[in-house]
Design goal:
The complex is a heterodimer. Chain A is an alpha/beta fold. Chain A has 8 helices and 10 strands. The termini of chain A are far apart. Helix content of chain B is 77%, strand content 0%. The longest helix of chain B has 38 residues. The chains are: A alpha/beta, B mainly alpha. Chains A and B meet through helix 3 of A and helix 9 and helix 10 of B.
Chain lengths: 286, 287
Amino acid sequence: MERKSATLLDLKSRGQSIGKRPMITIKQLDKVFTTVRDERINALSDINLSVADGEFVTIVGPSGCGKSTLLKILAGLIPSTGGLVSVADQPVAAPRRDIGIVFQNAVLFPWRTILDNVLLPAEVQGSDMKQARSRAFELLEMVGLKGFEGKYPSELSGGMQQRAAITRALVCNPSILLMDEPFGALDAMTREQMNLDLQRIWRESGKTIILITHSIPEAVFLGDRVVVMSPRPGRISEIITIDTARPRGLDVMGEPEFGRQTSYIRKLFYRMSNADDSNITGEGIS
Amino acid sequence: MSAIWNDRPHVTASASSPSWLRVMLRTHPEYLLSPLLLVVVLVGWEYGVGLIGAPEYILPPPSKIVFALWEGLSQGLTSRAGYWIHTGVTVAEIVIGFVVGSAVGLLLGTVISQFRLLDATLQPYIVAIQSVPKIALAPIVVLWFGFGLTSKVVIICLLTFFPLLVTSMAGFRSVEPERLELMRAIGANRWQIFWKARLPSALPYIFAGLEMASVFAVVGAIVGEFVGAQRGLGTLILTMNAQMNGAGTFSILVILAVIGLVMHGGLRLVAKRLLFWSDTRRRAIGS
């Protein structure tokens, strides 16, 4: 009870209406891949998750737990094999304009300037380019890339490239941002800075964000809720509500509550891998 | 001392000594070494020929080649004894054959690579045909199309078609999947994915194909003219060879080298503008 009210208060303090309306609803989602040799691989099994408007949800899990697959289904890039995924009360069948996506690599086109890269979605979607340009300039300033509009991606550091990729995802003003390990390729210092920046961007823009990460501290630091997934088949093993007040500074990571939360999730991870080991040894004996 | 910290140090320094020369030698020693090599080879050639006593029709000294070149170029534009008309014919063959052949190759390669099944079905045949030396078809092409311009253009088309077909297919196949996924995620249609992601990604490969084709085009023109033609630098080489005019033959080679260099330089110029972003390209041309 206490936790819930704290979360509500927190959301209200950001001046956002959270209401009861879920932005994203996932019900009994299954995904089975069929390999060339006709083997069936259960990538996702019975995923149920509801994400509120304006919520920041992080997903952690060991490799192979299907978290990227889940994100791709949400983005409409691959179809599910069963269950229901809906965004803003509409089932997802194809990529949607109200979803922006950021991948692990920035995937900027080297022949386009930063500004032209950022404008790519607007160009593709036939938006009003004049409006898109002024928005792009605004966003580039917000992510700290003012003055780099005319540069080419190869002239920017990894962190700056990823900022540009985030800007590109925001340029068409989507209500949802899906991020697939966006900071995985960055060094630790840059990563922390990007976490702070992302929190700020989220609070300023009021987007719904789902972020996938390998890093437990990152998940706890950023998320309103942390979804912990387990592999083979990919399932949600637990959802943990993080009610640390916003805005969170890096010092939060030193607090005992933060330590408790991360070590709890780490224990969940170990339990998964131990279960794995016993399986393997079991097979070895028989 | 403070002059060193000037933003254009070599300009300031040049007042005392020609240090721009030193700067150039340190950063680009090849700018001096390459011309020097040419001079050494030419001088060695000029006097070496006399030393070993090679007759002029076997190996003429460079001075005789330059003289032959001058003589050939100083004739009237339409004189059949001069070089201009033959050069014009050969250049026309090369340009038409190169443009048509590579355009068809590029177009077909592009279309084929847009359909995975078509690509896979045709692949073995393309590899098989690619390993046939198309130049061997020159005699039959001349038989089909006669001694005029057409047969040479057809031979060059055959030679330039395959490099473009193969490189464009390879280029389109090698587009990073991430780029395509991004395009799909932002809602791009097939056409937009092609123009905004696939084609630019394939461009470095296509230019590699064009460079190959430009070399083949010159080879095709000369061989075609050897096989059967009334005009062109290839026929001129045959005539001069029959007359044991070694200096003349070598002077035609100089013209062919110039044609090749101009084509190569033109392609590089376009590539530099279009492919400034490409790592592969930067590594390949070493700049």
